């Protein structure tokens, strides 16, 4: 499941903008500094999601369809089958239910199915207060990853704070994509965050960066700065 990765592909930029025109403007601004893009739920609700996906594939960009499917197994399987026809590289499905993950993997085709373990906007206090879950987040992530891999998933979405424990517990034969990446200290709705270097040194294969690039005064310069860090690690 894990193979050679072009270092510049390790940076996935999240296009979290309201619509097609804003997305294309960001992609054009980033130019050749970015080869891999994440298209999430905000864009999916804009009405031109697959038009954008098709255009980016035609530009030889790799696509992470971050749709976080969670429904009855038959519906998830059918939805995955539809996405598998569009040329995306990664697709997310919420972890925690083996039957749903198995249905997704049965229809994935050339897609890599990534199970979402625990959203990076949640921490241990959230689990204890809102969900009544008393186990450490790290242990829950490891448990959900183990089940996802047994269900046929190619990897997981997991915070960089859990990446090293995942590698120790489960080895190297699966993909880890780390969201919640912050190049510098920053307050927002992400709680379990790390820097690009920390995530990659801990064992992440890919890092997802959104607002620190999108909201930068010079998005391309911000992306290239992260690419320089990646090149230092893998050059």
CATH architectural designation: Alpha-Beta Barrel
Assign the structural class, choosing from mainly alpha, mainly beta, alpha/beta, alpha+beta, or little secondary structure: alpha/beta
What is the makeup of the main sheet?
A: 8 strands, parallel, barrel
What is the helical fraction, as a range of percent? Answer: 40-55%
Q: Tell me, what's the shape?
A: globular
In DSSP terms (H or I, runs of 4 or more residues), the helix count works out at: 11
Order of helices and strands: EHEHHEHEHEHHEHEHEHH
**CATH topology description:** TIM Barrel
Beta-strand residue percentage? 15-25%
How far the N terminus sits from the C terminus, by CA atoms, comes to 22 Å
Mean pLDDT: 90
Q: Mind telling me the C-alpha Rg? A: 17 Å
Tell me the strand order in the biggest sheet.
1-2-3-4-5-6-7-8
The strand count comes to: 8
**How many structural domains are formed by the residues?**
1
CATH homologous superfamily - what is it?
Answer: Aldolase class I
Task: Describe the protein.
This protein is an alpha/beta fold and 235 residues long. The protein has one domain: Aldolase class I (TIM Barrel), CATH 3.20.20.70. Helices cover 45% and strands 16% of the residues. An eight-stranded parallel beta barrel has the order 1-2-3-4-5-6-7-8, surrounded by six helices. α4 packs parallel to α5, α8 packs parallel to α9 and α9 runs parallel beside α11. The longest helix is centred in the C-terminal third of the chain and has 16 residues. The protein starts with 10 loop residues before the first strand and ends with a helix. The mean pLDDT is 90.
């Amino acid at each position: 499941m894990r193979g050679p990765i072009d270092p510049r592909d390790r940076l996935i930029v999240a296009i979290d903008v309201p619509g097609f025109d804003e997305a294309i403007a960001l992609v054009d601004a980033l130019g050749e500094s970015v080869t891999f893009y994440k298209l999430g739920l905000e864009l999916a609700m804009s009405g031109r999601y697959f038009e954008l996906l098709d255009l980016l594939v035609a530009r030889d960009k790799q696509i992470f369809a971050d749709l976080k499917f969670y429904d009855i197994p038959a519906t998830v399987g059918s939805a995955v089958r539809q996405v598998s026809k569009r040329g995306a590289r990664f697709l997310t499905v919420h972890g925690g239910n083996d039957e749903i993950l198995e249905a997704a993997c049965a229809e994935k085709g050339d897609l890599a199915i990534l199970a979402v373990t625990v959203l990076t906007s949640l921490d241990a206090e959230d689990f204890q207060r809102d969900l009544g879950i008393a186990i450490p987040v790290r242990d829950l992530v490891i448990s959900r990853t183990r089940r996802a891999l047994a269900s046929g998933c190619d990897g997981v979405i997991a915070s960089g704070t859990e990446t090293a424990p995942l590698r120790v517990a489960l080895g190297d034969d699966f993909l880890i994509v780390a969201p919640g990446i912050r190049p510098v200290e920053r307050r927002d709705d992400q709680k379990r965050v790390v820097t690009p270097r920390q995530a990659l040194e801990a064992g992440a294969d890919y890092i997802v960066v959104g607002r620190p690039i999108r909201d930068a005064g010079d998005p391309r310069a911000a992306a290239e700065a992260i690419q320089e860090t990646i090149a230092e690690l893998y050059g």
